[in-house]
Design a protein that fits this description.
Number of strands: 3
Order of helices and strands: HEEEHHHHHHHHHHHH
Number of domains: 3
CATH class of the largest domain: Mainly Alpha
Strand order of the largest sheet: 1-2-3
Helix content: 55-70%
Oligomer: single chain
Shape: extended
CATH superfamily of the largest domain: Cyclin-like
Largest sheet: 3 strands, antiparallel
Radius of gyration: 31 Å
């Protein structure tokens, strides 16, 4: 039994400590030249100061996403938890009580505890929306999030739409207009501002209000809030239409070329950008031998086949006139 025991002396402990310190020093040295290593936080790399060897890359940045240049700014920006967002009526600063009647270990609550949690949820909802203005905002932002999800719009569009609706609410533009109408108009304006526009027909397809009311409310909101919105570019619709139809990159490039030619010839003025984009995609698919039917393009773009035929001939005529010159 005594043979299996290992006794440690002061010398053994010192030897192990020296070995550990040597291994740590080796890790902090360049494996090629033995030079000193430095961490480049901007690029997430560990490099050798002497020979420039990249020892580690794609390191995780565990610091904050903001920058501060003095202690006061650091105190103002520092926080605990997730960042605030305009997509929630309270900007994400409230407490949410989960709907699952389970404890931290996943076990079901008793009947008495479930009733207690339900009362807490009820009071939590009452505290989150203290007045009619907050209830209005909560409903509108929920509508914006629902429609944006149905249309596949990114978070930056939802954030912009939330800001536009908040401005409309603060400037008292809602009396006489429905919450759904103003929220839909805000989303339509935000999508156009972000360069990811959706047609009025697409917006109306996921909204709870009619197309005419959306257009009327949109014009009113843009005029009253003095929003700077450029006319929709037909090219911004091309990638989505080409993707939905399963067309190649070559067909997409050809569609963009047809639209650029149309702009140079001036035939795009006064015409629907959705119709031009759909016609360009259809014409490009024929030119690169990736034939799709007009009905397929019409279904994807949500416009009539007659519009596609008319714009399609105009685009090809403009292309031919440029080629002849």
């Amino acid at each position: 039994m005594s043979e299996n025991l290992r006794t440690y002396t002061t010398e053994n402990v010192d030897d192990e400590r020296e070995t550990e310190s040597e291994s740590e020093e080796e890790e902090l040295r360049c494996p090629e030249c033995g030079g000193q290593l430095a961490t480049d936080t901007e690029h997430g790399e560990t490099v050798c100061v002497d020979c420039g060897l990249v020892v580690e890359e794609d390191e995780i940045d565990r610091g904050p996403e903001w920058r501060a240049f003095d202690s006061k700014e650091k105190d103002n920006k520092s926080r605990v938890g997730a960042p605030t967002t305009n997509m929630m009526h309270d900007k994400g600063l409230s407490t949410n009580i989960g709907w699952q009647d389970k404890d931290a270990y996943g076990k079901s609550l008793s009947g008495r505890q479930r009733r207690r949690m339900q009362r807490l949820r009820t009071w939590n909802e009452r505290f989150r929306t203290r007045d009619s203005k907050e209830r209005n905002l909560k409903q509108a932002l929920g509508e914006i999030d629902r429609m944006a999800s149905a249309l596949g719009l990114p978070d930056n569009v939802r954030e912009t739409a939330s800001v536009i609706y908040r401005r409309a609410l603060d400037e008292d533009l809602l009396p006489g207009r429905s919450i759904e109408g103003v929220s839909t108009a805000s989303l339509y304006a935000a999508a156009r501002q972000a360069g990811t526009p959706r047609s009025l027909d697409e917006i109306a397809g996921v909204s709870r209000v009619e197309k005419d009311e959306i257009a009327r409310t949109y014009r009113y909101v843009v005029r009253e809030l003095k929003l700077e919105i450029q006319p929709a570019d037909p090219e911004s619709y091309v990638p989505r239409f080409a993707s939905d139809l399963g067309l190649s990159d070559e067909a997409e490039r050809r569609a963009r070329s047809l639209l650029n030619t149309a702009k140079e010839q001036g035939i795009h003025s006064g015409k629907s950008p959705v119709g031009l984009a759909a016609a360009a995609v259809y014409a490009a698919s024929l030119l690169v031998n990736e034939k799709v039917t007009q009905s397929e393009v019409s279904e994807v773009a949500n416009i009539s086949e007659v519009t596609i035929r008319n714009r399609y001939h105009e685009l090809l005529e403009a292309e031919d006139s440029v080629a002849l010159n």
